[in-house]
Amino acid sequence: MRFLTAFRLLILGVWLGAAVFFVATAETAFQTVPTHEMAGTLVGRMFAILNYSGLGVAFVLLLTSLIVAAGTNIAGLWIERTMLFILGIGCAVGQFVISWWMLLLRTQMGKPIDEVAADDPLKIQFDQLHQYSSWVMIAAFAAALIAFIIIAVRRSGPKKAANDPLDFSKQFKI
Q1: How far is CA 129 from CA 28, 90, 147, 168, in A?
Q2: How far apart are CA 112 and CA 34, in angstroms?
Q3: Which of 20, 115, 125, 169 is the most buried (most CB within 10 A)?
Q4: pTM to 2 decimals?
């Protein structure tokens, strides 16, 4: 059971690290790449990778959450599952709804986004969708972080024996 917990923490931790790396890389791309159009293309591609991997991580972790050891806190397990579901839904909405809608708006603009006027209705809608995308990713990240913490602190399996000769905690109580 410890191997499974370690595996689950590993893949969730890798996804969380990738999400942090994505934010840093996206900021760097928009500061260093010559046009916002090129930076947006690069970031959009990385965003798709992050979303698809988030869907995979959520799916695998939800499946492995069905393997439960005796003595597992059921309330914590259901909170973990809910957080993993939020992670999956956030990645799905970010990829299949918001990103698709943003791509549709970019094609309707007909020119690079740097050349579109700030008061253009399509540009305003694009900027709003970008904000929604950020909020959805923050929610998915927060849910993944909560799930990570729950998995990490969960105590499963039988309790320690009362007469454990290696349990020194009783000797140091005041």
Answers
A1: 21, 14, 27, 57
A2: 12
A3: 125
A4: 0.84
